[in-house]
Every structure is written in C-alpha cells, then in structure tokens.
Amino acid sequence: MLQQAPHARASRRPGLRVTLARSKTEILEAQRLRYRIFAEEMGARLPSREPGVDQDIYDPFCEHLIVRDESADRVVGTYRILAPEAARRIGGYYSETEFDLTRLQLLRGGMVEIGRSCIDPEYRTGGTIALLWGGLARYMAQGNYRYLIGCASISMADGGHAAANLCSRLGDHLAPVEYRVFPRHPLPVDRLYTGQPAEMPPLIKGYLRAGAWVGGDPAWDPDFNTADLLIMMSMARVDQRYARHFVERQAA
C-alpha cells in the first residue's frame, strides 16, 4: 500500500531528516503515523493487537524508512522496506497477498518491496516526498538491489469508476509480458469503466515518470477500499535525470 500525498507542494521544511528507524520506539512512531493516515484519515480496516498502531506479520521482518522533524521531534513520513533476504525468511512479499508474482521468480534475489508509505498531512510537500525517495535510492544502491516493487493505490471512494478509467489508459506503461503479475481479486475494470477523465495520483505519476512499469491489471483491496497496481521499477532503466533530482533533493 503506497499512499500518495495529494496536491503536494514543492517546498520542504527545515529540520527534516531521513533515516532508517534505529529503535523499537522509532518503529512504533512510524506505525502510529500509519494508523492515523490509513485508518483514521482513509477509513481502512486495520486489525491490530495494539490500539492506534498499524502492525502486521511483515513488520518485524522489515526495515522502516522514516522522515523525522527534528525540531518537533516526531516522525512525519515513512516507507516500509522488505529486502529479498527478509522476504525469504517470512515466506514471501506482502504484494503476494494481492498478486500472483510467479513470473518474477527469477528476480527475487535482487527485488526489494516497499509499502505502507504515508506522510503527515502537515508535511505533504514535494520536499518530504523527495527525502523519502532519496532514502530509497540510497538503500537500493548500498544493497546493490536491482528491482523495486510495491502496491500503489487508487481510491475507490466513488465506487471504483475513477480507478477503472485511469487503469484503462496505462497500457503504454505495462511491464514486459515476461514480468506480468496477476491480481488475486481483479478489479472489474470493464464494468466500472465510464470513459470519464481521471486524475492520476501524484505518487503513481512520479513512479511512471521515473521509468517504472505497471505489472498488470489492478487488484481490489477491500480492507483499504482501493484499486491497487503492482508497480515495478528496474534500477537499470530508471530515468537518470529524474532519479538524480530526488537524490539531490534528499542531500540538500
């Protein structure tokens, strides 16, 4: 689940820093932020053992990229990262609960999964997104990982029509046939399609501009009430000017 920052502004607040969470306390902060955004703001159904905390069976196996506002001493943005070694230990990727990833089998040794991306409403700017993306770029480079995957979400608040209209025009961005994935609960695009214009979420737009592929048809996630696309990015084909923009913004 990758949650976009709607209408993100370009500026970035001073005092923001991106790191991997270094303690259980920082991970808990990220999980509380996730609960506030996904459950309280977006209305997702998130079963959890601890009230106000979004956590599942994947969390203990993941690393947690966080943006901290050091002046306010709080976590304001996060990505959850599942490395291939950790995916083997838990038995698979979160994306496999939504998609059949059989055709990606040969890529697993260098394939990192990202998810549970969210940003505090007060910090939804291009600068905060740039920090997270810069942190991801550094993580991929340091681990020499070759592929990035994750479920990118489109709201179905209107019953799914906008999601169907948007997904119907993503054909130019589809992954090669040998890398296609298949939804376990397909979104009925043909039934929901109305032909009306649909605005692409900023996060998905950013991925596609950077050179990402859409893995195949969308899945329906009933817990989040979203249409999910499997986004796949080969680090070898990422648009270098676009990638450098985010890395430079992260370092600024």
Rg (C-alpha, Å) = 17 Å
What is the averaged pLDDT score? 89
**Which sequence of SSEs, written as H and E, runs from N to C?**
EHEEHEEHEHEHHEEEH
Major β-sheet profile: 8 strands, mixed
Q: Give the DSSP E fraction (strand runs of 2 or more residues).
A: 15-25%
Low-confidence stretches: 1-11, 246-252
Terminal CA distance reads 28 Å
Helix content: 25-40%
CATH homologous superfamily caption: Gcn5-related N-acetyltransferase (GNAT)
Enter the CATH topology name. Answer: Aminopeptidase
Domains (count): 1
Structural class category: alpha+beta
Taken from the alpha-carbon principal axes, the silhouette is globular
The CATH architecture can be given as: 3-Layer(aba) Sandwich
Walk me through what this model shows.
The chain has helices spanning 24-41, 84-90, 126-143, 161-167, 189-192, 202-209, 240-251, and strands at residues 16-20, 63-69, 74-82, 99-100, 111-119, 147-155, 182-183, 213-214, 219-221, 226-234. It has 252 residues and is of the alpha+beta class. The protein has one domain (16-251): 3-Layer(aba) Sandwich (Aminopeptidase). Helix 3 (126-143) crosses helix 7. The longest helix is centred in the first third of the chain and has 18 residues, at 24-41. The chain is globular. The protein starts with 15 loop residues before the first strand and ends with a helix.
